[in-house]
Amino acid sequence: LQTRFIQLYREDADELNTRLHIELSNSLLSPQASLSPKYFYDTLGSRLFQAICALPEYYPTRTEAAIFTQYRQQMAESIGTGSTMIDLGAGDCAKAASLFGALRPEQYVPVDISVDFVRGAVESLQHTYPQIDMLGVGMDFSARLDLPDEVRREKRLFFYPGSSIGNFTLREAIALLRRMRLSCDDDGGLLIGVDLVKDKNILEPAYDDALGLTAAFNLNILNNINRLLGSDFELKDWQHKAFYHPDKQRIEMYLEARRDLAVRWQGKQRDFVRGERIHTENSYKYTPESFIGALNEAGFARTRMWTDEQGWFAVFHATP
Ligand code: AVJ
Predict the structure, then answer these.
(1) How distant, in Å, are the alpha carbons of 7, 87, 90, 193, 218 from that of 139?
(2) What is the C-alpha to C-alpha distance for residues 7 and 69, in angstroms, rounded to an integer?
(3) Which residues are within 8 A (CB) of 271 and not within 5 positions of it... i.e. 6 or more apart?
(4) Where does the Histidine-specific methyltransferase SAM-dependent domain start and stop, copy by copy (predicted)?
């Protein structure tokens, strides 16, 4: 069995590199330094995130998995079989694979920025499911969602589990949902997992676990930036921080300087004073009402929701 894999670059490697350097330099030099959370996911980062999903404190993954297990028959009735399942941020493809039995997709299209990681995953999955046509795609869908022509148009089902939509602001989230809506015909739809607003005492430990895996995940972004930019970040100089802001309904993650220091790259320099922070992630939480509102605004008129008993997490099937 030969797996098909397409790596999509909108620009040639040089242009991509220049754009990436400009983007990273600007975000590091801005008064509130920041790094986009998409840079978490180098190969080690993807593995660390996999490990986070197994932590006792990190409730989203197992809560969502329990919702899928309990309601997958209802979901299958709502969605129908034979879809073109487009898995955004597929990672190890495990969540989609657990639904193959119930959903029986015709084609499976895992999309991920971590190219090597998803390539390996889809190759082994294709052997287990030879009857499903699989097409791996390596691309950053946060900016644009232009799928290759090999992706079927019929019954497109965007699959976006794990509350990854939480990394975007409401405006950005609606824009991404709208791009999904425009990419599918009226027979298409979206199956999406969303983390819900809840008590700070549940939320904060999920992003600051006792084992220190989230701290390692957060710090590893600096390894990736050093590699991409040629910067000289020293991981031992930085400390993981995570806070829930009830007013903004989001977790904010930072790396905080343990001492006064300077970071240098390509003739540039940024000074940090002790206690100064680099913002690395927002993870927005929704209420069922606020998320249905976002779906409606994006052009998904009909929605169905499944949730756990505690109301911690929700899965939506949305259609035009
Ligand atoms: C992959 C964006 C859903 O926000 O919960 C986990 C990433 N960051 N722990 C999340 C993450 C720290 C995760 N998402």
Answers:
(1) 6, 12, 11, 21, 22
(2) 32
(3) 260, 261, 262
(4) 23-318
Give the pLDDT confidence of 1-57 residue by residue, as tens digits.
Answer: 667 887 765 445 677 778 889 999 999 999 999 999 999 999 899 899 999 999 999
For the chain, how are helix, strand and coil distributed in percent, rounded to 5?
40, 25, 35
- Rounded Cα distance between 194 and 145, Å, is 20
- 196: β partners: 286
Q: What is the distance in A from the centroid of ligand 1 to the CA of 283?
A: 7
Atom nearest to 163 CA in ligand 1: 3
Among all chains, which residue has been given the structure tokens 């000074």? 271
Residue 250: strand, helix, or coil: strand
pTM, rounded to two decimals:
0.94
**Whether 19 contacts 151, CB under 8 Å:** no
Each residue of 158-185: pLDDT tens digit? 999 999 999 999 999 999 999 999 999 9
Q: Tell me how far apart the alpha carbons of residues 318 and 38 are, in angstroms, rounded to a whole number.
A: 25
Both structure tokens of 245: 């802001």
Q: Is 163 in the pocket of ligand 1 (CB under 6 A)?
A: yes
